[in-house]
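Case study: Type III pantothenate kinase.
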Amino acid sequence: MYSEENFLMIGNTRWHWANKVKKDWKYFHTSPNPIEFKDKDYSQLTWASVGPIPEDIKLCPSKEITLDNVPLNNLPTNLGIDRALSSWSAFKKQSFLKSKEQDLIVIDAGTILSVTKVSNKGEFIGGQLISGFSLQLSSMSNRAMNLETPIVKKIPTETFQYETHNAMIRGSMNALIGLILTLFEETKLPIWMCGGDAPIILNELKNTNIDINHSPNLVLEGMIDVYKKINSI
Ligand SMILES: Nc1ncnc2c1ncn2[C@@H]1O[C@H](COP(=O)(O)OP(=O)(O)OP(=O)(O)O)[C@@H](O)[C@H]1O
Ligand SMILES: CC(C)(CO)[C@@H](O)C(=O)NCCC(=O)O
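Here is what the predicted structure looks like once written out:
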């Protein structure tokens, strides 16, 4: 049985969970609709979703966290709840830092890499969306007869790659790195990053002068914070 202190974020590739164990939060990721949870009672979970919800799981509609629950201004009605929650979370974290006077940028390097700019007053400004790393690789092989989705063991470093699979990997990674470098050059704003590809992207950026706040659980932390606000905890 779940207690009320269990949270689920349904993404497009994975499901993301937060469980309170004694006083500590434990964050983990599973495949969608994990077989090991098939007998679990989902009705007590606080949840939000941007991905498909299987019909056989019984989430409670009144326990859904929606955009109306997120205390940022100017949110478009169709904005992904993951973007709203990570933005709220980063905005709140930055409000305790010296950089609180500055606007901020949130990058969620997931299935889709989303960029979201939030003003120092907590207003949604806008963003960018681009296919995430795995999706770039799989979409190339889906649409080009001679390309196969590579298995990524490591990211090759040289700009010009001899092997096809390495050329696909280097090109896809450069698309993401290039986007981030351009954002930083144009704005010089603090960047907050989460998502499944954040570690490899940060590794690629380690020799640059971009200072990124890696905060892997921004979305779930935002959900927990919003839940506490709604329930005055
Ligand atoms: N164990 C893993 N399974 C799947 N993807 C992974 C894994 N580890 C890292 N990744 C990377 O994470 C990315 C997906 O990120 P993440 O799991 O955060 O997405 P998601 O939250 O399911 O999607 P969304 O962006 O819709 O919320 C993929 O591009 C992939 O390269
Ligand atoms: C962009 C994604 C897919 C990122 O997970 C999600 O936030 C979503 O479905 N958004 C809806 C459209 C938008 O945020 O502009």
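For the exam, be able to explain this: Residues 6-66 form one domain.
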